């Protein structure tokens, strides 16, 4: 049915009237024992004839009588008689008060405040005693933020846990708020302060509610905390991190305790500035963070270093971590659930009461995580058997395999050996695992594969380790050349994977200009993960880089400079990064074996990749920390999320000068060792030419695992997807099957990374002599 012009005009007038009431939250209380109140109410009813009237005063009086005499059991007749006496021949209309709610246009007859409070709090006893209730009625509480704060405020009001409640929020109620804020659609676009104040007034019109509709600002913070009497408790549920800090600073000065509840895991923060005047803000989590700068920061990436210490990024629930990763991709903001918000509101109200009644004195951060407190008994999972890596008795191994009988060459002094090994150990390695073990004996230097640090999920058949060992060999040979040492050396493929190569030294040797050039770059060579400047590389530069590997038989370098193809490769790299996160063993290796999460951990282990060395934005660094939790990863996989991890490699590839792929004619352990030599030559040459290099070998390892490994934890669907991606990859580079894809990398111009990966002291990687040595 189409509305008529007349009906639309009526609706418009009604809407105009409603809009005028949008900021009204105080009910009007009439005491008809007062003549002026009688007249005011009479005028109101005459003017507004459609007001709904609710008069159940008699039933309330009966409740009051029973509450006042709990030990007496009244018959209905007795209760009626006592109720009549309670009115004392008074006009029932004049008993108690009448409360008019303008926004509802309802008039309600209720007991006066004293009797109303008796009945309203009757069911509190003796969880809250009469003396405690009276003490609470003199307390002043401030609540900043009215999403979680709405539940807190309502719980406090229902218990009558305050005498005055100051509520602050600048926002209006939106439809998306209704997943956690108990309200109706008729309240949309009304200020949250008004919505909450009205709800409280509808429960208890005598409670004193003071609204700060503009939220907390620099101008009104003092007023919020002190006007009309200093707050006895500040409850922080606001979203503004600068306000959180500035409010705490002022609360600390005034000796006001602060209570905060985060709806995720019911995280509770209690700061008893009234008992601990020197207590650091937020338990010291924000020490050294200048929050005065926060309000001037524009981007999330700029703000994250300030937000992370407050929220406790790594203590979030798995689902919140996964959701945080998805913000601004599949969701627009932090999620909150009504169950958690209401639970948190009840917990906060309980803690508030105990603090105000001097029954709780602790400070700190606490978790009431329902997923941990009430959960199914974990299924018994058979513990994985840790297979001890066979330790090699080097002396016995060399003797048994006749690898130490020649004795030719020249004995070199320890300081020279140290120099060579230190330089060799500057080679790159997957996850900076440094998979080399050197042994010097009988004028011969032996290179072993250290199986204790190799063989991770992304090191199938040790191919990644072989690349690293090849690069270490190249470094050693270059350094020997500039030290004028002639090196006679060979791979020992018949003893792989244990023994890799041996070296004997003589002299003198005259280094070529190319060897000097490359050796000079060993210290400068490093992994650079910056985005870079997408300059088109000179053909001459790419040709020169290709010449660096000419002496490696069969080695070839394939270049991609077409922007569309680089984009496709970026998408492939992103898919591989997600695969890595979604596979349990690969994720575990990444979190525990590869990454180092603090500078102290990095320095302690002497290996791995420090998160501080990754050239990551604050946003990406926080995202990486969130991914330590495999439960969060599982949820991302379930919702087909994690696209943010594709975004970074895509951006990096699109801002590269070229993408290079080093190949050899066939797949073999020896070719991966040779590929390591070739990749190091190429990398050093690129460094000398002013380019940065970022190896991106994760896709190649997945291609290898899918093609050659049976036990690779890949589902049939994942294998099909990787096979399709691999085919696209080969088409982009124009290579055929059975080619060994050795080294994929980005080439670009950028400033060097300020922080480099650490290396173990050479003495931990070198053993000397014929004494029994094991590794």
UniProtKB/TrEMBL annotation:
Segments passing through the bilayer: none
InterPro entries to which the protein is assigned, alphabetical: Nitroreductase-like, ThiF/MoeB/HesA, ThiF_NAD_FAD-bd, Ubiquitin-activating_enz
GO molecular function, one term: ubiquitin-like modifier activating enzyme activity
Family annotation (CDD domains): E1_enzyme_family, Nitro_FMN_reductase
Gene3D superfamilies assigned: NAD(P)-binding Rossmann-like Domain, NADH Oxidase
THIF-type NAD/FAD binding fold domain mapped to chain residues: 127-283
GO biological process: cyclic threonylcarbamoyladenosine biosynthetic process
Record-given protein name: ThiF family protein
Annotated source species: Pedobacter nutrimenti
């Amino acid at each position: 049915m189409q509305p008529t012009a007349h009906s639309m005009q009526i609706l418009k007038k009604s809407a105009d009237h409603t809009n005028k009431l949008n900021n009204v939250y105080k009910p009007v209380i009439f005491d008809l024992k007062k003549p002026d109140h009688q007249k005011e109410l009479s005028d109101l009813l005459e003017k507004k004839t459609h007001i709904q009237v609710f008069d159940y005063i008699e039933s309330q009086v009966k409740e009051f009588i029973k509450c006042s005499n709990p030990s007496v059991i009244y018959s209905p007749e007795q209760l009626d008689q006592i109720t009549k006496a309670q009115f004392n021949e008074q006009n029932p209309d004049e008993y108690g008060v009448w409360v008019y709610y303008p926004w509802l246009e309802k008039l309600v007859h209720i007991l006066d405040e004293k009797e109303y409070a008796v009945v309203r709090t009757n069911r509190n006893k003796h969880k809250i005693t009469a003396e405690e209730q009276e003490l609470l009625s003199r307390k002043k509480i401030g609540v900043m933020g009215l999403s979680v704060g709405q539940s807190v405020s309502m719980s406090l009001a229902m218990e009558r846990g305050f005498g005055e409640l100051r509520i602050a929020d600048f926002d209006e109620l939106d439809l998306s708020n209704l997943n956690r804020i108990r309200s109706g659609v008729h309240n949309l676009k009304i200020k949250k302060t008004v919505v909450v104040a009205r709800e409280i007034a509808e429960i208890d019109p005598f409670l004193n509610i003071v609204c700060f509709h503009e939220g907390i600002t620099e101008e009104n913070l003092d007023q919020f905390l002190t006007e009309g009497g200093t707050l006895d408790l500040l409850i922080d549920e606001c979203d503004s991190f600068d306000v959180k800090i500035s409010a705490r600073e002022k609360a600390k000065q005034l000796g006001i305790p602060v209570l905060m509840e985060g709806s995720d895991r019911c995280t509770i923060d209690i700061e008893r500035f009234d008992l601990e005047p020197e207590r650091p803000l937020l338990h010291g989590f924000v020490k050294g963070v200048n929050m005065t700068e926060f309000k001037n920061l524009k981007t999330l990436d700029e703000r994250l270093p300030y937000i992370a210490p407050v929220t406790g990024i790594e203590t979030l629930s798995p689902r919140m971590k996964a959701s945080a990763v998805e913000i601004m991709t599949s969701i627009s903001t932090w999620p909150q659930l009504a169950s958690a918000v209401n639970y948190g509101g009840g917990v906060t109200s309980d803690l508030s009461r105990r603090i105000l009644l001097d029954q709780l004195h602790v400070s700190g951060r606490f978790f009431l995580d329902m997923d941990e407190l009430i959960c199914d008994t974990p299924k018994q999972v058979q513990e994985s058997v840790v297979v001890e890596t066979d330790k090699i008795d080097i002396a016995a191994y060399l003797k048994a395999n006749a690898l130490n009988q020649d004795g030719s060459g020249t004995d070199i002094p320890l300081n020279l050996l140290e120099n060579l090994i230190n330089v060799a150990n500057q080679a790159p390695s997957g996850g900076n695992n440094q998979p080399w073990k050197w042994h010097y004996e009988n004028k011969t230097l032996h290179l072993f594969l250290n199986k204790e640090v190799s063989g991770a999920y992304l090191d199938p058949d040790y191919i990644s380790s072989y690349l690293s060992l090849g690069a270490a060999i190249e470094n050693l040979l270059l350094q020997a050349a500039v030290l004028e040492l002639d090196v006679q050396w060979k791979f020992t493929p018949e003893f792989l994977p244990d023994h890799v190569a041996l070296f004997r030294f003589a002299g003198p040797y005259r280094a070529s200009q190319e060897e000097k050039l490359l050796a000079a770059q060993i210290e400068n060579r490093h992994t650079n993960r910056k985005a870079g400047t997408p300059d088109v590389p000179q053909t001459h530069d790419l040709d020169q880089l290709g010449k660096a590997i000419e002496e490696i038989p069969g080695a070839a370098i394939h270049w991609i400079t077409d922007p569309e193809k680089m984009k496709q490769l970026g998408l492939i790299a992103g898919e591989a990064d997600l695969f890595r996160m979604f596979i349990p063993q690969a994720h575990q290796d990444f979190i525990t074996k590869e990454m180092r999460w603090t500078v102290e951990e990095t320095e302690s282990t002497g290996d791995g990749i420090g998160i501080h060395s990754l050239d990551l934005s604050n946003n990406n660094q926080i995202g990486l920390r969130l991914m330590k939790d495999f439960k969060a990863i599982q949820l991302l996989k379930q919702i087909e999320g994690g696209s943010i991890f594709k975004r970074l490699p895509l951006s990096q590839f699109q801002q590269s000068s070229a993408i290079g792929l080093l190949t050899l004619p066939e797949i073999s352990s020896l070719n991966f060792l040779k590929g390591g030599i070739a990749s190091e030559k190429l990398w050093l040459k690129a460094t000398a030419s002013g380019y940065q290099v970022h190896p991106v070998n994760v896709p190649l390892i997945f291609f290898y695992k899918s093609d050659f490994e049976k036990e690779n934890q890949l589902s049939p669907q994942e294998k099909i997807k990787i096979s399709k991606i691999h085919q696209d990859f080969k088409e982009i580079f124009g290579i055929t099957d059975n080619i060994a894809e050795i080294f994929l990398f980005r080439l670009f111009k950028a400033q060097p990374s300020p922080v480099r990966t650490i290396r173990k002291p050479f003495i931990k990687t070198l053993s000397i002599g014929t004494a029994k040595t094991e590794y």
